[in-house]
Amino acid sequence: MSRAFVKEPDGSEAYEDLPDRPVSEHPNIVTAEGIAQIDETVARLNDEYGRAQVENERATLARTARELRYWSARRSTAHVAPAPNDPSRVQFGSTVTIARDDGRRQTWRIVGEDEADPTHGTLSYVSPVARALLGKSVGDVVQAGTSEAEIVDIR
Questions:
Q1: Other Cβ atoms within 10 Å of 84 Cβ, number
Q2: Cβ atoms within 10 A of the Cβ of 145, count?
Q3: Of 25, 47, 88, 138, whose CB is crowded by the most CB atoms within 10 A?
Q4: DSSP assignment of 45-78
Q5: Residue 22: half-sphere exposure toward Cβ, Cα within 13 Å
Q6: Which element (helix H / strand E) includes 41?
Q7: At 136, which CATH number?
Q8: What is the pTM for the complete model shown?
């Protein structure tokens, strides 16, 4: 078919229908820092949206509207978990250090899904490694990826 007969979206139509970001089916449990991050994100996006309205930037309006829908939904369903009070067992919010068979030590804090960034030391509580760690104690051995690891510290 010739491109001449295909209607392409033009102008504002090209940006109006950005698909919503998928929202996890898991409970939206967050740390105190996580709820603060969500609040900061919503405030920043509201500012961006306002600037885009003034400057009539259609692409920015569409993107920020989609992000605001996502973060507003996450804010409305967020449940702040209390800080862990028992360092003898891994809980949501705990910082856990494991020792792998190859001698590597890794430390992560178990947090909510939107807070998680393994490269910066945070794991989502629904990740396989975090699920293996939850409820365990120092000295327990867990499956961590393709190998086993021993829990050596809980804070």
A1: 18
A2: 10
A3: 138
A4: HHHHHHHHHHHT-HHHHHHHHHHHHHHHHHHHH-
A5: 4
A6: helix 32-55
A7: 3.10.50.30
A8: 0.84
